[in-house]
């Protein structure tokens, strides 16, 4: 699998972190570019971007103080499980974001296990990576449709909490 390039500016407020499996044949041209993925809609509705971006617009994220990266893992039946935490930590340390936002409980759980923490719930995790506090968001995947997101009826409220932490506010959903 060929990894997508990180899209992060010089002084990010928030770096969003997904997960890339080196053993997966799945390939997208852009971060959160899969069909039905609500990442860019949630960014806009939470007030983190002024305009609704498309995956092809990911290079505009740094102009909003945002960035995207991935926790790289190796998971396959015939490969020992490996999580590349040190590589992510080195990048986060260099970027020094105000928050590292894990874009699902699955990603956060993978990172937590690799660091020796218990998998966190949604919201502030109570621990950091390389000095950046970790915030756990409900996944933006179209497959993530639930009745409750840790006691809340929708994903947007969690994304709005993160926006409030960096001084931004929610918008009407378009």
Automatic annotation (TrEMBL):
This is G/U mismatch-specific DNA glycosylase. Keywords: DNA damage, DNA repair, Hydrolase. It holds the Pfam family UDG. Residues 14-162 form the Uracil-DNA glycosylase-like domain. InterPro entries: MUG/TDG, Uracil-DNA_glycosylase-like, Uracil-DNA_glycosylase-like_sf. The lineage of its organism: Bacteria, Bacillati, Actinomycetota, Actinomycetes, Propionibacteriales. Transmembrane segments: none annotated.
